[in-house]
Amino acid sequence: MSDAKTGGTGKRAPVVLQVLPALVAGGVERGTVEIATALHDAGWTPLVASAGGPMQYEIERVGATHFMLPLGSKNPLTMYRNVQRLAALVETHGIDILHARSRAPAWSAFYASRRSHCHFVTTFHGTYSAGNWAKRYYNAIMTKGERAIAISEFIAGEMRRTYGVDPGKLRVIPRGVRMDFFNPDQVSPERIIQLARQWQLSDDVPVILLPGRLTRWKGQPVLIEALATLGRRDIQCRLVGSDHGRPGYRKELEKLIVDRGLSNIIKIMDHCKDMPAAYMLADVVVSASTDPEAFGRVVTEAQAMGRPVIATDHGAAQETVSLGETGWLTPPGDSKRLAEALSWALELKPEARNHLAAKARAQIVQRYSNAAMCKATIDVYREVLAGDHIS
After folding, report:
1. With b meaning 16 or more CB within 10 Å and e meaning fewer, what string describes 299-311?
2. Residue 204: pLDDT above 70?
3. pLDDT above 90 covers what percent of the chain?
4. What is the value of pTM for the model shown?
5. Could you give the residue range(s) of every CATH 3.40.50.2000 domain in the chain?
6. Pairing state of beta strands 119-124 and 147-150?
7. For a disulfide at 277, which of 20, 103, 191, 261, Cβ 3.0-4.6 Å?
8. How many CA atoms, within 13 angstroms, populate the side-chain half-sphere of residue 161?
9. Which is it for the CA torsion 230, 231, 234, 239, positive or negative?
10. Which CATH class is domain 2-176+370-387?
11. What tens digit of pLDDT does each residue of 253-267 get?
12. What's the CA gap between 37 and 34, in Å, rounded?
């Protein structure tokens, strides 16, 4: 494989295999598709291994090859067998880099890379629980890559503090926004009207949007309490996200909405397939997460669409929101402060709103574009291949 380890200038294209548990909807999966697309467009050979899922079609559609493996399993025997399976793929397909995006697959990929003498790269996607030595040991595999990618400065700090990762191999590559897709100029009025009808939105009434799967740490109750505190009846709010087959929390939210007398204002909608149109319907977009977001795509996507954002004052939101210029930050779980921020956002005059929209989109174009993320990731691959050293 030595001729491929030249950063793309050898006789054959480098081969990169990304490994992750499954291909369901989420930031890890979306990043996998985006990098597979960029590799294909660059003339490299993109491969993906996972237990499959709804997004497998997208992997294959962009020209990548998918291998079905039980990589989400934490069963030690299955993980050991995955080492053998991955090592066999490396040998059969001439894989140059194994790129792990989650912990269980990373353990198998790490030992497969050692066995088959290929490069190993990791991306640290989340704030993993590290309450005891066993969890820290399990999580630490995500720092063992020849290069360890952090998806935000916040995550890079966690990696240094908790795991003592070598700064020399740490690379910060923020998640990217597809500027062509999340572009106000590309959303037709018909798409907006269709979604407004689907969501039963009234005309000329401000809309507050909280996108995010229905799980407690996403902070939907904080927004519900904030709207109760705000006390306005001339607004509409949509909580957009799937419960992923766990209806108990959704029922809890529905009861809270009824108890606060907000049934005519707040509706829970299932997963939305047209998020650009959803953002265009919103007068303000909220991310109320009570735990720190490792990156938080909602915040950057909304700004790319020129929408004011209110996010929680922790995690990567402190990097992606320009305070008072593109949005506001409120303390975790503080519904009263969130209500104050909502009042400010809803009272923005048209001139101030237009200024904010232009600044927000310009910031995302400059710092958080998908093109920049893909280029930086491929540069990491080139860096590893050029070194031609396997640790």
Report:
1. bbbbbbbbbbbbb
2. yes
3. 87
4. 0.89
5. 2-176+370-387, 184-367
6. parallel
7. 191
8. 8
9. positive
10. alpha beta
11. 999 999 999 999 999
12. 5
pLDDT tens figures, 320-334: 999 889 999 999 999
Q: What is the pLDDT of residue 127?
A: 82
CA–CA separation, 189 and 234 (whole Å): 23
